[in-house]
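Assess this one:

_____
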Amino acid sequence: MPYMNRSLIFTGLLGLAVSCVSPQLNNNEMKKDHLTYFSFDHHNSMSMHGEKYDVSYTKDGRINVVIDEGSSGEKEFYLSDSVIFDELLAIMETYKTDKYKENYKPKGRITDGDSWSLYYKYDSKRSVSSGGYMAWPDNYREMRRALSDYFQKWRNHQKGVLAIDYFKFTSKNNKGRDMEFTLKRGEEEATMTLHDAERGIDKTLSVGNDILQKLQERANSVNLKSKMYDYFTEDEEATQNTYFVRYNTGDSISGITCHTQYPSHKVAGIIDFFSPWLEK
């Protein structure tokens, strides 16, 4: 009996060891990196031809997707499901993009051609970066087409799409310039207010809500959401411009840009947008 008990105990311990170790091995085997960021950009320096895709996590855990295809315009929305990262990774693995060289260059000197860049990052912090100018890997065209085909399904996506609900822009200096434009979405119509002290303009207009979509297209075209062109100066003669945008998702952006002589393209773009209503 003692011998049998020892055998049973040994068998039980062995079974316990196996039950503890086996799942751990399976987990290690199943463990796989997942993407946390993806970006692809291909454009021509002389035209609006090209595309840009950007997928990233926000601080609150959502996934922000930006699709910009030049003349087709930019679309931005939020997702709560990370399946888009899994599907993008599958495309990258199909075309073995982790084997791409970091930089591709043409053999001869070429100007005004196509540039491209590819960058993605894993949750393990590992990343893949590649790009070039008028030179690319052998399967690059197939990979680019696969990405274009994949994002085709997202072009019609509606849930979580960004839409401006409120917009405010000011432009002031110490020489008398005092301008303020606002646009607010309403249930049926939007309210636009225009103030230009120098020209003695103060008016409030009711306009169609569709004007907010046109304003968003203009904001996108002048990279209003990007602060890379913001310029600050201590010059007392400078004109200071501020903007604030609140979206239907609850997100908001704001910025300040200054100019001493010529306004930046983002400031000029916004003033030009409101100019037709100032003239009326």
